[in-house]
Amino acid sequence: MFFLHNLERRVLLHPSYFGKNMTELVTTKLVKDVEGTCTGDYYIIAIMDTFDLSEGRILPGSGMAEFTVGYRAVVWRPFKGEVVDAICTSVNQHGFFSNAGPLSIFVSTHSIPPDIQYDANATPPQFTNHSDIVIEPGTHVRIKIMGLRTGVGEMFAIGKIDGDYLGHEMVWCRKCTKAVGDRMCLRTGTAALATKKMTPIGTWATRMGVTSQAPVSSLLANNITKLATTEGCFGRHQRELGFPVVVSK
């Protein structure tokens, strides 16, 4: 869950930065040092503002100035029993790993529905029911957190997808309200793809004479279709190669 939390931190400033804009420099260094870090109990997502900036104190022997800064931040603290949306990062015979933002979550085969089995012969290896569900790197999944382990500057979780409304997520095309999953909606050309799949898409765009590095949604659907036909990788094989699978109207 997300919280708005008042925190405090000591910030060190090098003597070369002493001047009229020290307050701005202290705030900038605070944001750089704190945002995106983990305290062991929660993640600091963003700093909203600062308050109670103390006067600087020169540290003997180093010349560094120490400031105590109070700040208000948006923090995320995952809880046992919380349901989160994540993206699968890797799959093996024991389960799969996924990331829900900065949190790494492992889902064991014992916490996956029995009709979804590991397929080592697929490329890449995946969990599938050999019908409409495929869990592979880049797949969006909804996971219920069952346990948390905290360490110094890190958190790790285990979860499950064998429950109601958990597991493989369909991604909906915003323009035509059509479920496209990790595939391409031919009607609007809108794609929902993992970041790692952008490289092969860029190669396709170059072959088609599209020099811009714009998102996939800006590519014309008919160009993608023509290239899919040229490459001879329509349907299932196209998905295995990491390209969007074209969905007919």
TrEMBL record:
Record domain RNA polymerase Rpb7-like N-terminal: where: 8-63
Swiss-Prot/TrEMBL keywords: DNA-directed RNA polymerase, Nucleus, Transcription
Cellular location(s): Nucleus
S1 motif domain span: 78-149
Keyword Transcription: yes
Keyword Nucleus: yes
GO cellular component terms, A-Z: DNA-directed RNA polymerase complex
Coiled-coil segments: none
Pfam families to which the protein is assigned, alphabetical: S1 (PF00575), SHS2_Rpb7-N (PF03876)
Its job: DNA-dependent RNA polymerase which catalyzes the transcription of DNA into RNA using the four ribonucleoside triphosphates as substrates.
Family: Belongs to the eukaryotic RPB7/RPC8 RNA polymerase subunit family.
Name of this chain's protein: DNA-directed RNA polymerase subunit
